[in-house]
Design a protein that fits this description.
Layout lengths: L3 H17 L9 H17 L4 H13 L11 H15 L4 H13 L9 H9 L8 H16 L5 H14 L5 H29 L15 H44 L9 H22 L31 H13 L1 H51 L1
Helix pairs in contact: 1-3, 2-3, 2-6, 3-5, 3-6, 4-5, 8-9, 10-11, 10-13, 11-13, 12-13
Length: about 400
């Protein structure tokens, strides 16, 4: 037997939305409300919520958009008022009524959910029951034009959708399993449209990643191989730098004092001595620069994670962060395939930059040592000839 309060609420909300919404409410309509309710119930059962919690969640889903019958902007405030009045008229327990009000507040844009029920409702608000993301986008575009006066070109609208859905995250694993594939598919479609538009207009813009590592085993293997090769090359570079440090340090600490002791007897040795000393010092400096670790901040601004411009898998970007901030940031990256792909690309890119600087300084070190040794021999020969 169905819950009495749920039946009354569904009838009340259905009548309210059918009478109170205009034909321009094409996205936030009764069908959307019922789809959110259905998604909440399905996910709530998956997570085995208690009967009382499931009832609260279902009521919140039914009332969360009723405020659109009063006002488009800040509709959540009116949704809470409408729900509160309904609960008073039907003698609904005050504690449970307050839970519903709190859940409705969570659906406001910009608010991050904390509890499981809040996360379920937040995710359910972006479900794909009955309509695809593409249909939803077109319906929402009409509403924004009518109620907000926001009119965008096709390119601007597609770009805004890509920005939003690229940074959007599902807060529950069930929502990701239920709606994640549709979201990835439509995102890929939007990005293809942007790419086609850019080719047609001839504009050169910075492009988002239009690939997914999840979909290509070959790409995953190539990234792994490249990462392993770069790590091996880093070890080789460090070994080469250490060889130069050892040789030059040996010359400075053992060879140079021995040579300096002979200068009084053979004054012409001071010229090759100075060339060799300068060569060793410069070689040591550049070999040290090649192996010196880069300066690391140890902190990452969580607001930069959505931009995909950082890498939380590298210790230098998080060793000064709190455990809670790091977990939040890492969760955001792992749950968003686009951000995860960007992080992997960033890791390879910045490792490559570091490797490039290392080998550049190493090349300078070996060049200095080679030229310095040749000059030392030449200067020694000339000094010896003139001394005679």
């Amino acid at each position: 037997m169905e819950n009495h309060i749920i039946q009354k609420a569904e009838t009340y909300v259905s009548n309210l939305l059918q009478e109170g919404l205009t034909e321009d409410h094409r996205y936030h309509d009764l069908a959307h409300t019922l789809s959110v309710r259905d998604a909440c119930v399905r996910m709530g059962k998956k997570y085995r919520l208690e009967k009382k919690d499931l009832e609260v969640l279902e009521l919140a889903a039914l009332f969360h958009d009723t405020g659109f019958t009063k006002q488009y902007e800040l509709h959540e405030d009116y949704s809470k008022e409408i729900a509160e009045a309904f609960f008073k008229d039907n003698n609904y327990p005050e504690e449970q009524a307050q839970q519903v009000i709190d859940l409705i507040e969570t659906t406001r844009v910009g608010i991050r959910p904390d509890t499981l029920m809040q996360k379920i409702l937040k995710d359910a608000d972006f479900n794909t029951y009955g309509r695809s993301y593409l249909q939803n986008a077109n319906l929402l575009r009409h509403e924004w034009k009518v109620f907000r006066g926001q009119e965008m070109t096709e390119e601007e609208w597609i770009a805004s959708n890509v920005d939003f859905w690229s940074s959007h995250e599902f807060f529950t694993g069930e929502a990701l399993a239920m709606f994640g594939e549709e979201k990835r598919r439509i995102l890929k479609q939007f990005k293809k449209q942007i790419k086609s538009s850019e080719k047609g207009s001839g504009k050169k813009k910075e492009k988002e990643l239009d690939f997914s590592l999840n979909s290509s085993k070959a790409a995953q293997m190539m990234f792994k191989t490249t990462l392993r090769n770069q790590i091996d090359l880093t070890n080789i570079a460090d070994n080469k730098a250490n060889i130069m440090l050892t040789i030059n340090s040996g010359i400075v600490t053992l060879g140079m004092p021995l040579l300096a002791s002979q200068i009084n007897d053979f004054p012409y040795l001071k010229f090759p001595f100075m060339v060799m000393l300068l060569t060793c010092i410069l070689s040591i400096v550049f070999a040290t620069l090649a192996t010196r670790p880069a300066k690391m901040g140890g902190k990452t601004d969580l607001s930069n994670i959505d931009k995909g411009s950082t890498n939380l898998f590298f210790f230098g970007n998080f060793f000064k962060m709190s455990m809670n901030d790091y977990r939040q940031g890492l969760k955001k990256v792992v749950e968003n395939d686009s951000l995860l792909d960007k992080t992997i690309v960033n890791d390879l890119y910045f490792l490559g930059l570091s490797l490039g600087r290392k080998y550049s300084r190493l090349h300078t070190t070996y060049s200095i040592f080679m030229i310095g040794m040749v000059l030392t021999v030449i200067v020694y020969g000339l000094a010896y000839m003139f001394a005679r």
